[in-house]
Amino acid sequence: AFKDENSKLVGFDLDLLDAMSKKLGFTYKVTPTEYDNMFMAVANGEYDIGMGQVCITEDRKKMDFTEPYENAGLQFVVRKDENLTSVDQLKGKKIAVEKGTAAHKYVTEHCKDSEIVVLPAISAAFMEVEQGKADTLMQDKPNAVYYLKKHPESGLALLGDETAKIPDGFALPKD
Fold it and tell me: How far apart are CA 18 and CA 90, in angstroms?
């Protein structure tokens, strides 16, 4: 999800939740929170649903999940004017990620020769790259594509191929 020009949260997960609520007859209230904190809150039963392109991974099995609604890979995003043409060129570069995400885990494990800049929100990671404070960011490919489409003035582009696909679903408290 991203805030639109009116500061309203918009995005695929919100559209999906809205369609589900209409079909199943429930109401909901969206509470924006830092991604990393959301998992503890869902696992503890503070939230009924955790959403935001949640990758269903083994280390998140302290929660239950809906059936996957998508299988998405992770993708690097760079400034077009940086002339980066290959993921191999990222060695020693600054990589921005949102704390607690699959991208955070991926770059921690696979980009040990790079400086990882961990931020509380993906919007901050996009800003870091746009402003030249980081060389690249990693994000779920559908979210990266959505951001680039919504912000053509950002001067950003995808780099390389997406990683292996990971199923996404809504996180739920156990049982």
Answer: 39
